[in-house]
Amino acid sequence: MKKMFKKIGKKADFKTMETTLIIFVFFVMLMIGFISYTQFQREGIEAQARRNIELRAIDVAELTSRPEFRCNDYSAQNCLDLYKIQSFSKTIKNNDEMIIHYSEIFGFSNITVKRIYPTPQQQSSIVLYEKKPNKITAKRKYSTPINIYDAVSRQYEFALLEIEYYS
Amino acid sequence: MKRIKRKAQVEIIGIAIVLVVIIIGALFLFGLNTQSQKSQPVSISEETRINKLGSNFLNAMLKTTTDCEEHSVEELFKDCFAEKLIQCGNMDSCDKLKTIIKANFLKIFDDIEEYYSLSVSLNDEEQRDFTLTSPKKLKCKKTYTYSNIIYTFNLDEIKLKLILCAE
Prior knowledge:
Chain A is 49% helix and 25% strand. By secondary structure, chain A is of the alpha+beta class. Chain A has one domain.
């Protein structure tokens, strides 16, 4: 009788162990599934955020059509007036009102015009606007070729409009 | 004895089924991950960026005033494939074009690490002297072609073709 109880006890122990193991494996599988799912979700959200920043940077590059920057020659596409951008760059540096106004348009970004050809005698880069957030979580750079028009010499320069957009 | 044997067989089949399910699940996750990394289509923001880069490059380059008697790149092209009357120091218009396109204009693609291939054809006949390709070789997900047509004084057709690539 005692021997029989001992045998039943051993079998019950084994069954309990088996059930525990099955539950453990089940939860491990559930966790793996959950982790994979959240990872896929996170990657998707991050990719979407990256795309949004890229599109925002491309949107900012449309500044070439703004009257305060563009050259008066309408035959030239994507053309900035040299004297307009030089005076804008000087004025915005010490003008808080202007910074507030343009931050609504350009957001957190750094807009630079890099003069490439013909090689300029002075000021090879013109910083048009610069505003960085306190903490940069993401950054995208977008560059597009443009012309700069010097209305005095009536010459078109080849330049690169560089936009660094932050979020 | 026979009953125990049958029970053991059932248990083994159970374990085998669980293993098969785990393997299928792991393969599915692995496949999903590699597919999302490799065969991801070119995003809209990337397409927009490349389209603007390609079309703006050709427009800006042709409009630029060169240091050769203040002729534009477009004028140098017209002269190069016609009378060759323009002299830029000790170079003719064709040599001047080859020099400045390689050293000044296409340099921007190297700076922003972009693959390019620029070719020029006269009445659909490719001018091999003007074909310039990026030293950087890439596996392109998709190629984008941009072209600008200019006409010489004899009404010959000069076609500039730029190929860019989305990584």
